[in-house]
Structures are given as C-alpha cells and as structure tokens.
Amino acid sequence: MLLGGLRYLLPVIEAAHQQGYYVITADYLPDNIAHKYSDEYVNVSIVDKEAVLQAAQEHNIDGIISFAVDPGVISAAYVQEQLHLPQMGPYSSVAILQNKDHFRHFLAEHGFNVPAAKGYTSKTDAQRDTAWFHFPMIVKPTDSAGSKGVTRIDNIEEYEKALDEAFSKSISGHVIVEEFIEKAGCSSDTDSFLLNGELKFVSFNAQRFDEKAVNPYTPAAYSWPSTFTKEQESYLTSELQRLLTLLKMQTSVFNIETRIGTNGKAYIMECTPRGGGNRLSEMLRYATGVDMITAQVRAAVGDSVEGIEQKPYNGHWAEAILHADKDGTFEQLQIDSQYSANIVDIDLWVSPGDKVSGFNGANDAIGTLKMRFDEESEMLEFINNITKHVHIYCNN
N or C: which end of the chain has fewer CB within 10 A? Predict the structure, then answer.
C-alpha cells in the first residue's frame, strides 16, 4: 500500500511493478494522478491512522510506505507496527521525527546542535511568549510539508500574520517558532538510505531558493555536490547516524535537511523517513546509480535490499523546480539552446492554457528540469542564473 496520489509516486509505482508487486494507492482524492497507474485505489484519509489501518487489514497488505508524501508517514509507521509488517523504525520514533517541535526537543535533550525553539497550540500563548526571541525567527507548522505555512519574521509586527499562516496550514493545530540559523553557503536537502540501522548511502546537496517567489523559503533548485567541506559532511554523517541509532530506526530512505551556520556549527534541521518530494531520489539515481526507490519498495515488503552503497557523483548535477512568478495562464517553457546537451530530463506538468499559481509551496510547481554538467563552473553559471536561462511565459 502506497499512501498518497501525487505524481512523485509514479516512479515508486513503476519500481514496484518491476518487482512484480501489486500496488494499492490510498488517499481521499480519487482524481490524483498516481491512482491511474496503481492496480487498485482506496479512498481514505492518509492522516487518519485508524482508517488506514482498517483499509490495510481489509486488503491484507504485505507492506506500506508513504514515499514523498509527508502527511502519510505517521500512518504508515502505525500500520507497520500494528500489523507486524517490515518497519522503518518504531512508531514512537517516527512520531518524533515527524513533529518539528518534538524533534527539536529530542535533539536538544541529546546534545545535538539545535536552534532555540518552542512549540504552541494556542495563538494567544504564542503571542504572549516572546521574551526569548532573537530576530530573525521562523514560524511554521509542526506537521506540514512542502514549505507550506513557513514565514520568516524580522520584527514583532510581522508575528501575528505569520502565526495565522502557520496555524492555517497545520493539520494538528501545532506551530513552532524557532531561531533562524543564518547559513554559510547553501543548506542541503537530499535523500539518504538507512539499511538495518546503518547509513549505507548518504548525500548532501546545495538547496537553492528563488528570492522573488511568493514564498522565498520554498526550495526552487538543487545542485550536487554540496557547498559543505568534506569535514562538515563527515561530521553531519556521524551525527545523523547517532540520531538514527538513538531512535532505533531500521530501514528506510530518509529526506534530510542540514545546514552550516555562520557560527560554524552544523545543524540537522529535519530527518524524515520518506523520499523527498522534489524527485530527489530520482536525481540521485541519475547521478550515482544508487536506486533508493527500488530499495524502499523491496524493504517495505521484507524482500532483500541490494545495491545501496556509497558512490560518487557522475559529474555535476542540477535540478530546477519549474514554477511561475505569479498567478496566470501558462504559455510555454523555453530553455537557452546552449544548454541542450546538458538536459537529462524535462518533466512539464502543464499545457498551454492551463492555470498556474505563484510559487508559494511545493504544490505550485509546474515541473522539474534535470541537468548534468562536466564542469562545476558550467553548472554554477546555470544554477545561479536560472531565470536568465530558463523562461516560463505566462499570461496574467
């Protein structure tokens, strides 16, 4: 059983079919694209773990995952534990990783570098408790994905609006307010794989943003390798292994966000047992040959996992998350001809005449563009000047 129905699940369904598995997709939106490619669809809310458990029992499933679909991870872990299916790790540990407030508390309790943070279930309580603030701050839901509801505030006058936005995007009515860690270089948001409690494949990238987007904190592009030093990557790998060992996690792909602060400290910002939404595991399959998607579906049903090992990047890689600057009607996509040989894949999700929205969250993306370069300088020229080289034309 695969929770969710977004297009990011299509390669997961394909991998499962290649292994000979029968795929059931489940969510409450029957028109979602993934359901057209699965063998069966179940209409159930993926955040309702008891309803998902009932559906899983009725269909006598052998395994369950929520790949690239953050809201379903808790339910998947719950069903795994209740039905004694192959587990990514204990349900209680997954619950910590999936809640930003609990995760920050766990990190602090065990001596990890962590930004100062507090969680709230009441807007009134959050507004009263500001004496500890050191601007800038970040206000966000504890349980949303795709950067929805995330706002940076630089003064107290911006706080109420940011709280309203965060609470409106929280599934459980919880928000977290945390110190904004100014980063040195680029932050990293990419996928890695834990096999039987050991990190067998670890990656770091350079996460990039569009400062002109409606939400400038929604990731707009990625490049591999990262801007971290080898020593910083080694330290973060060690800390990630320590974290996952403490939580007794077992086997899963993990989407991991890290950064180096201008204070020189390395931070684990998020570590969730699922594939990243922006086709990150697919990018890494192109760049290294390591197939975490097939490994995940095999692990989910208890089959052996092979081919997960540390491998170097085959060149320099970039992924652009295609998006419109503002609401309008899509006309066309143009990419400068000088980069034709560098294009590995264009996945455009809209057609001329389709309505598009300004880039406020990952769900506003209109496609992805994958690029490979022989030289780092070529890649950086492209990725640092995407708006000069990639043109998305829309009518108002």
Answer: C
Which pLDDT value is given to residue 142? 82
- Please list, in sequence order, all residues whose beta carbon lies within 8 angstroms of the beta carbon of residue 229, skipping any fewer than 6 positions away: none
Helix (H/G/I), strand (E/B), else coil: 253: strand
Residue among 165, 239, 153, 149 nearest 199 (CA): 239
What CA–CA distance (Å, rounded) separates 228 from 204?
A: 8
Is CATH 3.30.1490.20 what the domain over 116-179 is classified as, yes or no?
yes
Q: Measure the CA–CA gap between 66 and 386, rounded to whole angstroms.
A: 31
Distance, CA of 371 to chain centre: 20
Helix/strand/coil (H/E/C) assignment for every residue in 4-27: CCCHHHHHHHHHHHHCCCCCEEEE
Residue of 295, 257, 261, 262 lying closest to 276 (CA atoms): 257
Per-residue pLDDT of 360-373, as tens digits, reads 888 899 999 999 99
| CATH architecture group of domain 2-85 | 3-Layer(aba) Sandwich (3.40)
Contact 44, 55 (CB under 8 A): yes
In the numeric block, the tokens 């996945």 are attached to 347
| Domain parsing of the chain, residue ranges | 2-85, 116-179, 188-395
Q: What's the CA gap between 55 and 26, in Å, rounded? A: 9
Checking if the pLDDT of 146 tops 70, the result is no
pLDDT tens, 286-314? Answer: 999 999 999 999 999 999 999 999 999 99
Q: How far apart are CA 328 and CA 112, in angstroms?
A: 45
Burial class (CB within 10 angstroms; exposed 0-12, middle 13-18, buried 19+) of 375: exposed
Q: Are 321 and 220 in contact (CB under 8 A)?
A: yes
User: 3-state class of 233 per DSSP?
Assistant: helix
- Is the domain spanning 188-395 CATH 3.30.470.20? The answer is yes
> Could you tell me which residues are beta bridge partners of residue 355?
329
Farthest-apart Cα atoms in the chain, separation: 58
